[in-house]
Amino acid sequence: MRPVSTTASSTDQSGVPEPPGGDAHGRPGGPRRPDGPERAEVRRAAFDPDTAPGVSWHWYADGRVQPETDFRHAVDSARAGAGYVWLGLRDPSEQLMDAVGMMFELHELASEDVVEGHQRSKLESFDDNLFMVISTVDYVEHDKLTETSEIVSTGEVMVFLGPWYIITVRKRGRHAMRLLRRDFETDPDEMVMGPWRVLYRVLDLVIDDFAQTAAEMEEDVEEIEAAVFAKDGEHEVERPYQLKRELIEFKRRVFPLQAPLQALQTRRYAAIPEDAHAYFRELADHLQATRESVASLDEVLGTILQAALNRTSVSDNQDMRKISAAVAILAVPTTLGAIYGMNFDNMPELHTKNGYFVVIGIMLVGMAAVAWYFRRRHWL
């Protein structure tokens, strides 16, 4: 079943073009886009990749990169059925996305998502075109895990996929698209498959990064586990808590990608042939393995954090016991000193020859007895 279009039509049901500022019946609406030859000329003048920053493109046909330097000619040829165009953008501005959207007839809501960023992984269908947001994660190397260490760095790759084009947009994250394109262009068998193959390669790269990050974070979890459960282990909770926060951020990037992959392997889209479903099913299996690994790490780290909190609590209780024992020991001389400091005249012990030494001895014996008692109870 063909996906339902969410794009707006420039004509009403009677086929009458909408006038500027409204439709044929006077209802409010956006400005009318040019039609026919006028619209083609607008597309030609809308976008110049040679002057726009952070832009690269290639035209592929017959399994080869075409030696074309005129972007507009390449786009027109691909639109006419001669191969496809791969356009790459890096942190595009709103003006640049408006120009690209006009040239490739992208839906305005998808273009807004690109400009705003910070989107969860998702897949949307507009007529014969797809728009996909893919959250990315990169592991940040560090010599030692501290309470302020940054463990994962996040970003986004957004993909517009049509029958004759693919547009990849990178926002933050590591520089991987150029290397991916270079590797892609070394294999004619891949280039001849069409634009969907680029989407597959992008997803494959992102999921491999997920798996690598999960493996690296597993080592961090083992390091924290060894420190917390050692005989003289650490009583701090800052490091386990910081790792827990980073793992939650990682989890937020990994888990939402499952639903778009499920759609790619089960639903029919004009831009993706049916024989490509098996490739996306393989990616979904790899992602599921990573999801299970992340869930396991989350459970283990939760146990480690709880153990660290319990050890801290036990340590605090031991400190309170020591303080209580010290107070009890000092209570013996304090009590005797308070009794003999009341300045009564009729106190027989004050007039004995060895009264002072007897009282000091009683103090020392009493303190020693109290200390022995608390040591037997392991308070000291």
List the helices and strands and how they pair.
Blueprint: H1 36-46, E1 55-61, E2 64-65, H2 71-79, E3 84-90, H3 94-104, H4 108-116, E4 122-126, E5 129-139, E6 152-161, E7 165-172, H5 177-184, H6 188-191, H7 195-229, H8 238-254, H9 258-266, H10 277-339, H11 355-376
Parallel strand pairs: 3-7
Antiparallel strand pairs: 1-2, 1-3, 4-5, 5-6, 6-7
Please tell me about this protein's structure.
It is a single chain. It is rod-shaped, with a radius of gyration of 36 Å. It is 52% helix and 13% strand. A seven-stranded mixed β-sheet has the order 2-1-3-7-6-5-4, with helices on both faces. With 380 residues, the protein is of the alpha+beta class. A hairpin with a 2-residue loop joins strand 4 and strand 5. The longest helix has 63 residues, at 277-339.
Query: What is the mean predicted local confidence, pLDDT?
Result: 81
The assigned structural class equals alpha+beta
Give helix and strand order, one letter per element, not per position. HEEHEHHEEEEHHHHHHH
Enumerate the spans where pLDDT stays under 50 for 5 or more consecutive residues. 1-40
Beta-strand fraction estimate: 5-15%
Order of the strands making up the biggest sheet: 2-1-3-7-6-5-4
Distance between the termini: 77 Å
Helix content: 40-55%
Number of helices: 11
Structural Rg: 36 Å
Shape: rod-shaped
Query: What's the total count of β strands?
Result: 7
Task: Summarize this entry quickly.
It contains eleven helices and seven strands. With 380 residues, the chain is α+β, with helices and mostly antiparallel strands. Strands 2-1-3-7-6-5-4 form a seven-stranded mixed β-sheet, sandwiched between helices.
